[in-house]
Design goal:
Number of domains: 5
Radius of gyration: 65 Å
CATH topology of the largest domain: Heat Shock Protein 90
Structural class: alpha+beta
Helix content: 40-55%
CATH superfamily of the largest domain: Histidine kinase-like ATPase, C-terminal domain
Mean pLDDT: 78
Strand order of the largest sheet: 2-1-5-4-3
CATH architecture of the largest domain: 2-Layer Sandwich
Low-confidence stretches: 79-87
Length: about 675
């Protein structure tokens, strides 16, 4: 019994101990559970923090459509999320406010898609958000599996792709538009290519292309027509076949060198049938899109007929210019703007290049067009107009205006300028000769009328002298006879000068001509108080001249000297001198008789000395001279094969120098 009771006590103790152990184990288990719960909570918190850091919306949905987990982006971006909703946290309720899954509303449900396929699915949904604005969302749903491989739900990533879809739509729209444009442009280019090829073929200008080595790569119909070479014969061949061969240095393509552009190059070609033709060639580079020179393109036209026509016109023009030059005709072409477009060599030599200047500036030294324009009158009436005389560079010209239409279609005028300076000189000489002839006739008549009474006076005086009884009467009668004889000599010289004779040269001494000239003007020297000094050696050679013409030269020189002396000295003065010196000189190995006529008058300005022998040039006041005396004298001395020069110092003196060839008797 006792053993059995002990056993019971022991059993109770053990039971008590076991109960204590159980209680301890329960506490330990609670601790372990708490620790495990805390650990899981930490893990869940870590997981929550991790997915909260993702920018896209992350949502975990169970197979029962309930939302198990959401990250921060999902909570902020979801439109219908409300943790206090009384009807639960079903995904279609929370996010879309619907009572049925999305498939029931016509939208693809990602959970159902994963449940059916067991794979990741991607769906797009367009949803209306606040204020009726619609947005497009891309949902990628991945299956969430348990440890035993059981499908627990899905993990969704939700992204708003509205802008991306819009951009894609815009890009697609642009792509479609670009595609249409490319198609349209391609069609246009194909059409343009066909038109260009057609135009290239039928172009009225010969066109061909070559590669860098000069091999022809294209050849149009006109090139075939002009050269006789067909497209098949030329393409692949050296284009220099008809341009003179490979050795032609003027070719635009030289082996081993760059292609050189050229324009309007005149070339000679030989056609297939051997005919020589002339062409005008243009050539340029062909360049690819990357800037590489791939060859050249050339065009040419046949200018053979034009060249022949140009040669004919040039020949006729040269003939015309030569004829005008030979005739001394100057030519200007003037347009309606009064501009000189052309002048020939005659006018170029006379007064320089006047091309581009206004005609009224050149002809009349005006700043504006003439009041009556002969050029415009000729053009408007289409008839030739002649104008008066103009003076250019101290020469006289007669103008003739001939209208014509130039190659540019513009009406213009051809102006001929005929130099009439010599003609006016001849007219003046003719007039002077007529005046001198009239004066000679008058002088001859007067001389004859004087000659008879003078002879009577001399004869009567001689008779009275014979009967005179005293010396005073004899002396008086001798003086009457002497003065009468002097008058008779003057009358004789005047008759000699006025007598019409053939202009024949004769052997004469220069002193005789000088004395005869002085006899006609000496009384004027005495009247003006001019002191005459002569220095003429007796041993001077004879000269062979026309005495009347040489007398005319000396009379002109003496008259000019008298005028200069009277200008400097108004009355008598010891320095009012005219000095005549003659001597024998040598020029160029020949003997000449030099006569120097020196007056101590006003002298000649240095700047006008080169012009004093020009026709109509005069330094005298209007009405005091014609400007012809020295010009005529210069011409007469030149006809005698002599020289007439001048040496002058302004305000002191002037010396005219007359060199005449000494007469050389012909050997018998």
């Amino acid at each position: 019994m006792k053993d059995e009771q002990k056993t019971k006590k022991e059993l109770l103790a053990e039971i008590k101990e076991m109960r204590s152990l159980v209680m301890n184990l329960s506490e330990v288990q609670d601790v372990v559970v708490n620790e495990r719960r805390k650990s899981q909570e930490k893990q869940l918190q870590f997981l929550q923090n991790a997915i909260d850091s993702v920018a896209d919306s992350i949502i975990v949905v169970g197979t029962d459509f309930r939302v198990k987990l959401m990250n921060r982006a999902a909570r902020h971006n979801s439109l219908h999320v409300n943790s206090r909703l009384s009807h639960g946290n079903l995904c279609f309720q929370m996010f879309f406010g619907q009572n049925e899954p999305c498939d029931g509303k016509g939208y693809s449900c990602p959970l159902i898609g994963v449940l059916e396929s067991g794979k990741q699915v991607k769906v797009e949904q367009e949803r209306e958000i606040a204020d009726g604005v619609k947005r497009i969302f891309e949902i990628i749903a991945s299956p969430l599996m348990g440890e035993d491989g059981e499908l627990l739900g899905i993990v969704e990533s939700v992204r708003d792709i509205t802008e991306r879809k819009q951009a894609a739509a815009i890009m697609q729209n642009h792509h479609d538009r670009l595609g249409r444009l490319v198609q349209e442009r391609t069609a246009e280019l194909l059409e343009a290519k066909e038109q260009a090829e057609l135009l290239y073929r039928v172009c009225p200008t010969a066109v061909f292309t070559v590669d860098r080595s000069g091999k022809a790569t294209n050849w149009n119909d006109m090139a075939e027509h002009l050269t006789g070479y067909s497209r098949e014969e030329i393409i692949g061949s050296d284009c220099r076949i008809f341009f003179g061969g490979e050795g032609d240095d003027s070719c635009c393509i030289k082996k081993g060198e760059d292609i050189q552009p050229c324009e309007g190059m005149e070339r000679k070609i030989t056609t297939k049938n051997g005919e020589v033709r002339y062409i005008s060639l243009n050539f340029n580079k062909l360049v690819s899109l990357d800037g590489t020179v791939t060859g050249g393109i050339a065009s040419f036209i046949d200018i053979t007929n034009q060249k022949r026509t140009d040669d004919i016109l040039r020949s006729e023009r040269d003939k015309f210019k030569s004829m005008l030059t030979a005739m001394g005709q100057g030519v200007h072409i003037v347009n309606k703007k009064y501009e000189i477009e052309f002048q020939n060599d005659v006018l170029q030599d006379i007064f320089g290049n006047k091309i581009g200047e206004k005609c009224y500036e050149v002809y009349k030294q005006r700043n504006s067009p003439c009041d009556v324009c002969q050029m415009h009158s000729a053009i408007s009436s289409n008839s030739i107009r002649r104008s008066g005389e103009i003076v250019l560079s101290d020469r006289y010209y007669e103008q003739c205006y001939a209208p014509f239409v130039d190659v540019d279609g513009e009406p213009k005028a051809l102006i001929l300028l005929r130099d009439i300076t010599e003609l006016k000189l001849i007219e003046a000489e003719t007039m002077r000769a007529a005046q001198l002839a009239s004066l000679g006739e008058l002088a001859a008549g007067v001389a004859h009328e004087i000659n008879n009474p003078i002879n009577g006076i001399i004869n009567y005086a001689q008779l009275l002298e014979d009967d005179a009884e005293n010396s005073e009467t004899v002396d008086l009668l001798e003086r009457i006879i002497k003065e009468g004889e002097r008058v008779a000599v003057i009358v004789k010289n005047l008759l000699f000068f006025a007598r019409q004779r053939e202009e024949e040269a004769e052997e004469i001494d220069v002193e005789t001509v000088i004395d005869d000239s002085l006899a006609l003007i000496n009384h004027q020297f005495r009247k003006d108080g001019i002191i005459l000094e002569k220095d003429i050696p007796l041993s001077l050679p004879m000269i062979n001249v026309n005495p009347q013409q040489l007398q005319q030269v000396f009379l002109n020189l003496f008259s000019n000297a008298r005028h200069a002396l009277n200008q400097r000295y108004s009355g008598k003065d010891p320095n009012k001198q005219l000095i005549i010196r003659c001597r024998d000189v040598m020029r160029e190995g020949k003997s000449y008789v030099r006569t120097e006529v020196t007056d101590m008058g006003t002298g000649i300005p240095e700047d006008i000395i080169p012009n004093i022998f020009d026709p109509f040039f005069s330094s005298k006041e209007p009405g005091e001279g014609t400007g012809l005396g020295l010009s005529i004298s210069h011409g007469l001395i030149k006809d005698f094969e002599g020289f007439l020069g001048v040496d002058s110092t302004l305000g002191e003196r002037t010396t005219f120098i007359v060199d005449l060839p000494a007469f050389q008797a012909e050997a018998e």
